[in-house]
Amino acid sequence: MCRFLFSYRVLDALFNFLLVWYYCTLTIRESILISNGSRIKGWWVFHHYVSTFLSGVMLTWPDGALYQMFRNQFLSYNLYQSFVQFLQYYYQSGCLYRLRALGERHNMDLTVEGFQSWMWRGLSFLLPFLFFGHFWQLYNSITLFKMFQLPECKEWQVLMCGCSYMVLFMGNLYTTLRVVYQKYMNNQDKSKLL
């Protein structure tokens, strides 16, 4: 909460540097997982490259009126995104725990391959939070595009961040809808076989 009340550019730069580091480590981890046979969707790998770029641009955005205008919205979005990542972790670990208890997964498994009907309950809880986050990315993009049209806008970071948020919104929305549709269709096919 202090970050919202006190504006210190050094703390903001440290936060953005940590975001760059976080997304870089995710891309490295995903590259290792892919080389070991993981079937991570290509969008999620690209998503982390875009997020690394976005965090780097935010890191270089100089302190000024436009930065301060967007700062609280950016911090609020990141706080919400952290909450959603916690929910995703809770859902994923719960699915893995149940599959291990049923003897269908090993202790070293990190992700869930496949989908079972009982997973819909947790996923249906998670989806509204995901979609809200996706549309918040659209809102961030529109806000930044409007800021870019202001006569006092001289920073290139405003347009780059707006474009990055738009790419993230479109890719996340499309991929999430496609994955949910595929899981739904696979679940329907399984129920027809029974």
Automatic annotation (TrEMBL):
Transmembrane regions: 6-28, 40-59, 118-136, 156-181
Annotated membrane topology: Multi-pass membrane protein
GO BP term, example: fat cell differentiation
Subcellular compartments: Cell membrane; Endoplasmic reticulum; Nucleus inner membrane
Alphabetic keyword roster: Cell membrane, Endoplasmic reticulum, Membrane, Nucleus, Transmembrane, Transmembrane helix
Main location: membrane
One cellular component term from this protein's GO annotations in UniProt: nuclear inner membrane
Pfam families: TMEM120A-B
Keyword ATP-binding found: no
PANTHER family per UniProt: ION CHANNEL TACAN (PTHR21433:SF1), TRANSMEMBRANE PROTEIN INDUCED BY TUMOR NECROSIS FACTOR ALPHA (PTHR21433)
Family that this chain belongs to: Belongs to the TMEM120 family.
Stated name of the protein: Transmembrane protein 120A
